[in-house]
Amino acid sequence: MRRLHEFLFVRHRHNWLLLLRFAVVGASGVLVNLLTLVVVKKLGPGFNQAIVPVPGTDFNVRWYHVYSTIAFLVANLWNFQLNRTWTFRTSKHARWWHEYWPFLAVGLLGQVVGLVLLTLLMHLDSPIHLSPTVLDDSTGFRTRLYWAQLIVIAVVTPVSFVLNKVWTFAAVRTHHPDLADPSHVEAVLTEDDGAAAGAAAGPTSAVPGRHDPLV
Fold first, then answer.
1. Distance, CA of 54 to CA of 159 (rounded, Å)
2. 33, 46, 191, 214: which sits with the fewest CB atoms below 10 Å from its CB?
């Protein structure tokens, strides 16, 4: 039990801190997402109107798919800037676009999953659709689209955190020990010290490592 406690809350305390920061950023992103959704919903056609049919299916792309995607793009950019400058603190070590495109790719993957879930929550023939009787769209708090979007965000956010931590910001943090997970800093420093020592000793005393060619 003591080892488990040490493993979870001592060795990986930095991961919990990152998750907390990511959650704070995510919470602000939820507000940005919903605010954008409210604005585009008020400015555009009825959110349940069909736009184009999906080939080979009985489904249609509806305006709520478009509104959700616009809200996602705005919130995604907001979240990226805060995660880059505060959560993972990589803004001084990598170019903006170099980090944004994988962050956007992760977000788009999540958005695709989210749109499927959103459709299931909104479509009246779905077994998990939100009740149009309770959420009759009479007020903002009883608008089905808003609640469906909140559920989508709650489902997609944890997956996005994991993917962004291990991919989007990982490359930068790996090469900067001051940004790395404390449970891995020692290994990073050891590798860097070993590389520096090998360079100082010259090619004759180099020791083959895991990245060296086999001889």
1. 27
2. 214
